[in-house]
Amino acid sequence: NDTAFIIDTIYAIPLAVTTKDTTICQGTKIALGDSSKTGHLYVWSSSPMGFTSTLSDPIVIPHDSITKYYLTETNTLQGCSKTDSTIITLKHLQSLLIRDTSICPDSQINIGDSAISGYTYSWASNPIGFTSSQSNPSASPSSSTVYYLTETDSVGCSATDSTKITIAKVPKIN
To answer: Which residue among 76, 86, 107, 160 is buried most deeply as judged by most CB within 10 Å?
Structure first.
């Protein structure tokens, strides 16, 4: 009476855990993965190309509007691997500013644009003296002035931009 045993080891397929697809503010850091597991290798890449890592949970600051990050996790004991991905989208705020321009002395000009629902606006100037919380305030500078707009959306993303209004020289009539 012979007895034969077959011992078969079943290894779990790696999970390859990535953060859920997400939209973040421009300039924000985000962690992409999860904690590491002993005996596992992690290989990250991105599209557009440019990012690679062998950490299980790398932190990135994306620069492209949309970046897809790929993780391949391999169990080194038996070679099984799994790939997953996450898409990180950057939220870009629309600029409301007019282009740099010149106006006649003693004139006024609207320097912004229509309000966007849920946004707040904060204006300042150099030289100092002008402030506003409107999306499209009217300005009447007495000298060339740079106006700075900081706009913030409903989730807290903010961006600052500027426009220069120059006072044109009045032509002399001979």
So the answer is: 86
